[in-house]
Amino acid sequence: MADSLFYLVVAAMAAVVVALVIGIAGYGKGGEFNKKHGNKMMRLRLLFQFIAVLLILAYVYLRNQGGQ
User: Fold this and answer.
1) How far is CA 11 from CA 5, 8, 15, 66, in A?
2) pLDDT of residue 15
3) CB-based burial, 31-48: b 16+ in 10 Å, e otherwise
4) How far apart are CA 7 and CA 43, in angstroms?
5) CA 49-22-60 angle, 5° bins
6) Taking the alpha carbons of 53, 59, 60, 65 in that order, is the dihedral positive or negative?
7) Which residues of the chain fall below pLDDT 50?
8) DSSP letters spanning 25-46
9) Are 23 and 38 in contact (CB under 8 A)?
10) Distance CA 36, CA 19 (A)
């Protein structure tokens, strides 16, 4: 269980990085994309971060319970 959860944690962190890079690139470029999607990208990144933190906490909890 913990190994599959580890891969979910890695995927969630990768999603955070992708959303962050798209958001920063859109902000840097400016224009219509940033006006239309800038706030959505920030919210999406925050959602991905929240999910990643919950998965990390679950992973640490299960590892400490011996659920390898």
Assistant:
1) 10, 5, 6, 23
2) 95
3) eeebeeeeeebeebbeeb
4) 23
5) 20
6) positive
7) none
8) HHHHH-HHHHHHHHHHHHHHHH
9) yes
10) 15
- 24 CB neighbour count, 10 Å cutoff: 12
Give the global pTM: 0.81
Q: Does residue 19 contact residue 41 with C-beta atoms inside 8 Å?
A: yes
Contact 68, 60 (CB under 8 A): no
CA–CA–CA angle 3, 63, 16 (5° rounding): 60
Q: Are 27 and 38 in contact (CB under 8 A)?
A: yes
- Please give the angle made by the CA atoms of 43, 48 and 63, to the nearest 5 degrees: 155
Query: What pLDDT does 32 receive?
Result: 87
Q: Which amino acid is at 55?
A: L
